[in-house]
TrEMBL record:
Signal peptide extent: none
Organism (species): Ephemerocybe angulata
Protein name: N-acetyltransferase domain-containing protein
UniProt xrefs under Gene3D superfamilies: 3.40.630.30
PROSITE patterns for this protein: GNAT
One Gene Ontology term of the molecular function aspect: acyltransferase activity, transferring groups other than amino-acyl groups
InterPro entries, alphabetized: Acyl_CoA_acyltransferase (IPR016181), GNAT_dom (IPR000182)
Domain N-acetyltransferase: 81-224
Length: 232
């Protein structure tokens, strides 16, 4: 059984640890590259802002390395997997406090990067939500759901069930709230993985970018009583 822990009020050191974990786990993926002008220093700021806003107004769960043997100067087991999610009524970058935490990232983007996000990526994301079940209905579903924005496992520790265990925590939070889980993903491999976790594809849209095009997916998991339910 994988042991999952909720990380509340993470220290600066833990925020940096999670940032580096996300950098390693998402290395070379097209979405992080496009969101960061293909610059590692900006991608690092992007991941850091995601962790910070999750700590501020969302929820973070982690898995610590179960094989860790502390030395005489050890400060704790390393984190090997993480999920960041926002509960019903909370959305990423929806408050001034969150936006302040993301300012350093936004200010680091090139004019071309900002233009692509504002004129291509975000309008198409809005269209995806609108077309996935009706603009008003589906937007309300997303806002009222547990929205998962980050999920990553250190490549050394993948295929040990850590991501699945983290998703179970998000699902359990949704069950307790009487809500659903929503996420967005961008590859056939990830779509297949989330399907195996009981999610269904609600909509797809082509995203063009200077690095190549991809298909973005909106996926949902519905709790007790819904066709998309998976036993916890």
């Amino acid at each position: 059984m994988v042991s999952v822990h909720r990380l509340q009020d993470p220290s600066d050191a833990q925020i940096e640890e999670l940032t580096q974990l996300l950098l390693i786990a998402h290395d070379g993926l097209i979405v992080p590259r496009m969101m960061s002008d293909s610059r590692k220093d900006i991608e690092e700021k992007w991941h850091r802002s995601g962790v910070r806003i999750g700590a501020l107004e969302g929820r973070i769960w982690v898995v610590y390395d179960p094989s860790y043997t502390p030395g005489p100067n050890a400060v704790g087991a390393p984190i090997v997997a993480v999920v960041v999610a926002f509960g019903p009524g909370a959305m990423p970058m929806a408050s001034e406090a969150q936006r302040a935490l993301g300012r350093d990232y936004i200010d680091s983007l090139s004019a071309e990067g900002k233009k692509w996000q504002n004129e291509t990526f975000y309008p198409l994301m809005e269209k995806l939500v609108e077309e996935s079940g009706g603009e008003e209905k589906n937007f309300e579903q997303v806002v009222d759901s547990w929205l998962t924005i980050l999920l990553a496992t250190d490549p050394v520790h993948q295929r040990k069930g850590y991501a699945s265990a983290l998703l179970r925590e998000v699902k359990q939070a949704a069950v307790e709230d009487g809500s659903i889980v929503t996420l967005f993903t961008f590859s056939d491999e990830l779509e297949a993985y989330y399907l195996s976790q009981g999610f269904t594809v609600e909509g797809k849209i082509d995203i063009p970018s200077p690095l190549g095009n991809w298909v973005h997916r909106e996926m949902m998991w519905v709790n007790a009583g819904g066709a998309q339910q998976e036993p916890l």
